[in-house]
Amino acid sequence: MPAPYPQLDRQRLLIKPLAQRVSKADASVLRFAKDLPPEITQADRDRLQVIAQKMLAAKARGGANLLTYGAHLFRNGMSPLIIDMMKRGLIDQLTTNGAGGIHDWELAFHGRTTEDVGRYLDEGQFGIWEETGLYQNLALALGATEGLGYGQSLGKMMAEERLVVPSLDELKSQIGQAMGGQGAHLAAKAALFEVITGLGLKPGVIELPHPGREHSLLYQAYQLGIPLSICPGIGYDIIYSHPANHGGSLGQAATSDFLTFADSVGRLEGGVYLSVGSAVMSPMILEKALSMARNLAIQEDRPLNDFHLAVVDMQPGTWDWKKDGEPPNKHPAYYLRFCKSFSRMGGDFEYYEMDNRAFFQNLFEQVTLAQLGQGSP
Questions:
Q1: pLDDT by residue (tens digit) across 204-240?
Q2: What is the mean pLDDT of the chain?
Q3: Which of 367, 373, 354, 372 is nearest to 43 (CA)?
Q4: Alpha-carbon span 179 to 186, nearest angstrom
Q5: Cα(155)–Cα(221) distance, rounded to whole angstroms?
Q6: Are 286 and 345 in contact (CB under 8 A)?
Q7: Which domain of life is it from (predicted)?
Q8: Which of 3, 98, 132, 303 is exposed most, by the fewest CB atoms within 10 A?
Q9: Which among 40, 66, 57, 12 has a CA at the least distance from the CA of 274?
Q10: Which helix (DSSP H) or strand (DSSP E) does residue 115 occupy?
Q11: Which tens digit of pLDDT belongs to each residue from 93-127?
């Protein structure tokens, strides 16, 4: 049998507390949500009015409204507007990447987020911070033993403001029961055992106040019972630098979240899919989830083709994907990969070359005006 290739030992890393990190963003970013919406063209305003009407129609007819976003939507201070729409019942599923979950959590827990990547790379310290790495990974390891997904595990930690570490004897008993067919989530419990022993954690309660959680999408989604899925890439995020990171725990939590996302995609008929600032993760997860959801819909003889895809990014979009379809492979627009992927999914696809703050603030205004016009609160 060949020996495994050498691996870096994360136990040897010098891990520093968040208090020693200089962060570039704090809760003041939330002020942007109160600003007047940035000016956009009348044509774009008309297009956003159509999205607003479609979102209200979806709510009325039982279609799902899904928001998939990159971390910058949160860092640009849009969470108060998103939370408002969640509370109005206009968003049925949120999905982000690992960075989206990290910035959201750090702002709620630490009050600051976003480090100077260049500076800390030079110092060999980028991403190597105790609280983010320990508490997020531990929350995932604990949540996975209950069958919870990535986003729900973080939301639970924020709502309860604590993590409870079981004793090794208790965990051994649970593992034994699961092996005998008397319990679930055997692999997750074994992974948690490895995390606890690897870190030398003592059993008991770890109190974790989250003073800024009211503006957290993770927390509010958990409280409202709205799924917030986190679909990460292995090695993409700073929590992989911490020895508390366990591929088994994270993999189970992330897979659970992807399947929750896919379940929501199955209710997209008559709904709206908003992809804001996510040119890689969003089209990749949607095409797989949509294929699975259509597979089931075809078996059940029900449609899954009538939905609106609104894709927002800053990359120049000179091709009219809605009018002209997919460009020839000799045209530069063909290599705008995310638009090509979305254009193949069916439904009604439109691309918005727009700053995500301008998009979301103006969409929020149009949704509010549309609801007032219907006499909604």
A1: 999 999 999 999 999 999 999 999 999 999 999 999 9
A2: 94
A3: 354
A4: 7
A5: 7
A6: yes
A7: Bacteria
A8: 3
A9: 66
A10: strand 112-115
A11: 999 999 999 999 999 999 999 999 999 999 999 99
Per the CB < 8 A criterion, the answer to whether 103 and 153 are in contact is: no
Who's near 187: CB < 8 A, 6+ residues apart?
248, 252
Percent of the chain topping pLDDT 90:
84
Measured CA distances, 273 to 94, 156, 260, 352, 368 (Å): 10, 26, 15, 13, 18
Which residue in the block uniquely carries the two structure tokens 């709502």?
A: 159
- What's the domain count of the chain? 1
Chain position carrying tokens 């690992």 = 98
Residue type at position 165: V
pLDDT of residue 17: 98
Query: Do residues 81 and 365 touch, judged by C-beta distance below 8 A?
Result: no
Q: Which two tokens stand for residue 89?
A: 């019942």
What pTM was estimated for this model as a whole?
A: 0.94
- The pair of structure tokens assigned to 361 is 């603030």
Please state, as a whole number, how many other Cβ atoms lie within 10 Å of the Cβ of residue 25.
Answer: 17
User: Do the strands 23-26 and 112-115 form a parallel or antiparallel pair, or are they unpaired?
Assistant: antiparallel
Angle at 19 between CA 13 and CA 25, to 5 degrees: 110
pLDDT of residue 377: 41
Instruction: Confirm whether 225 is domain-assigned.
Output: no
- Residue 274 structural domain: 41-92+267-377
Q: Is 331 a domain residue? A: yes
Q: What gap in Å lies between CA 23 and CA 148, rounded to an integer? A: 30
- Residue 371, Cβ neighbours under 10 Å: how many? 17
HSE (side-chain half, CA atoms, 13 Å) at 201: 26
Best CA proximity match to 184, nearest among 140, 143, 147: 147
Reading phi first (left if > 0) and then psi (alpha if -120 to 50, else beta), residue 82 is in alpha
User: Distance (Å, rounded) from C-alpha 127 to C-alpha 18?
Assistant: 10
E strands, 221-296, are 228-230, 272-276
